[in-house]
Amino acid sequence: MAFLRIMVLLWADMLATYVMWIMQKYLTDVWKLGVTHAAGIMNVYTGLSKFLPLVFFIFVDAGLSNYRSLLLSSIAFSIGMGFLSMSTPPVLHKVTGTCKDYEPNCLGHTQKALFYTALALIAAGLSGRVVSLVVFAENQIEKNPDEPKENEPNCKSSSMSLDRKGHDGKLINKPSLRLPSFKAKKPSLRLPSFMVKNPEREQQQQTESTKKAEVDLSQLQFQPLEAMLALAQKDSGKLPGACCILLVPVVGLIALPYIKPWSIRFGIPAICTLVATLAFVQGTRSCNKEENRPAEGNTVTKKYRWSLCTRTEVEETKIIIRMIPIWITFVICGVITSVGNTYFVEQASHMNYKIGKLKLPDSVILVFYGISKLQIKSIYDAIGRYLKGARKEKYAPSIGIALATIFSVLCCITAAGVETRRIHVIRSHGLLDKPDDKIPLSALVLLPQYFFLAGLDSFFENSVTPFLTDQSPPSMKKHLVYLSPGLSGLGTVGSVLSVYVVGKISESRGKPNWFQYTLNQSRLDRYYWVLAVLSAANFLWFAFWAKLFPLREPDSNDKKETGNDEEKAGNGELSESIVGFVTDGVMANFTHSDKA
């Protein structure tokens, strides 16, 4: 029951995803902002929501428990969605003395302040979920069966430390061993298993649990729904309840596109978010007594001192410096990803969603994008099955990143072709100066570019985190889990600068700027071609530095740099792996799957 109440928090994630997906249209239709201005606002929001998880993790690692992180983020989420609904003109028009029409002159300073505050709070809410939701939920599934309260989560197990406060106020460490309950138990002459120390087994279990937690965190970062369903499958009794809970946001996603008033479109997700937060608080009411404990490996009585760096620290710093050129690849991928929630949405907003007499909701594109991501993930899994063992952990992330850059090139080329076709239809029907009219072009023509965008995001999300954790120094593995979305978020914010620079260059020599007030008058097709060239250069950049970067063995504790001979052998082995996979790896794995 506790796990299901935690899973209710996914309501906010799923509905907020749709709300933010249509936010570009809201800003251009209601606020009457230019297409680039609206895209800039959304790109800053997206970049902030991808960078804040690292900040939340630092607080959790410093002593803020996962429960408190979830509680604070849920409250911020609820307030943010409420503010977003209140920022629409009809809600507060009597209080602010403004009109209630969905027009720019009906938006006062109060509504605008509520809107921007809402975006910041929603970004904070999403970030808190990224850090703590799966970790907290996993503890509820794996809690001991002899707990006194079955319907309440083991909130103390969600902390990342074993530190406790003694009577004198000082922190002391106690092992988190639960005293066995001798009630209604038969006496045994054998020594209890938990009293038999096996250092090797304990170390192995700790390593496996740490690696498992990192995987769950990466799944939550990009695919929270899939991660929570995977946890629910650990207990078959929880899976039907989890599916029933998810029916609510699914119905909401189907119904919201048919609701015209923006205040109701934003209000329904706000109500669902509030209900989810209250359900979470009710199901975890015993957690408010949890002590504030620091993360594992940290000691708050610990005094930091100025000292010379050790040789290990120097070598780890060298590793990080060598990784910086590869990080640029992640930033460029973020630039390409940013067009999916901005210009792609603007393209689809005035297209035809009818198939015969059946009119599809605009959320069908978002559903197609999500399904495509899941299907393309199987290709990455096939790469891992082909490489096998240590070679899988060592080379699969690099191959996945290379494929992500290839998909980014295909995405931009396809988007440029579709936009050229859309502009031709607009001009042939005299719609160049009629941005609010429907375009006689099916929105389904956008599916190929959304497919390639899903491929970019899928390979990026499933490859970058393993790459950073496997190739980074041991002391930074936990933090680099959250660095990958931060780098992508930096690219999303950087896309605002790219639009500005490209626009200034395009209007040189007296030519019109490619980015006009409306999408119909803009030349996004040319901007997409610029992004295609940038993506191709990004692929070559990554291939060059991946060739020079010495790949470390997964879970290697060596602090010294790998020798030159080993570096050359490893890089050659990587090239052979890529060629082998392209030639016969996919067919071999699919044949193996069919036989199984």
From TrEMBL:
Residues 144-164, 194-213, 555-577 are annotated as: Disordered. InterPro entries: MFS_trans_sf, POT_fam. It comes from the Eukaryota. The keyword Membrane applies. Keywords: Membrane, Transmembrane, Transmembrane helix. It is found in: Membrane. One of its GO terms (cellular component) is membrane. It is a multi-pass membrane protein. Residues 144-153, 198-213, 555-570 have a biased composition (Basic and acidic residues). The keyword ATP-binding does not apply. It holds the Pfam family PTR2. The chain crosses the membrane at residues 7-24, 44-64, 71-93, 113-136, 239-256, 262-281, 324-344, 395-418, 439-460, 480-502, 527-546. Belongs to the major facilitator superfamily. Proton-dependent oligopeptide transporter (POT/PTR) (TC 2.A.17) family. This is Protein NRT1/ PTR FAMILY 5.5.
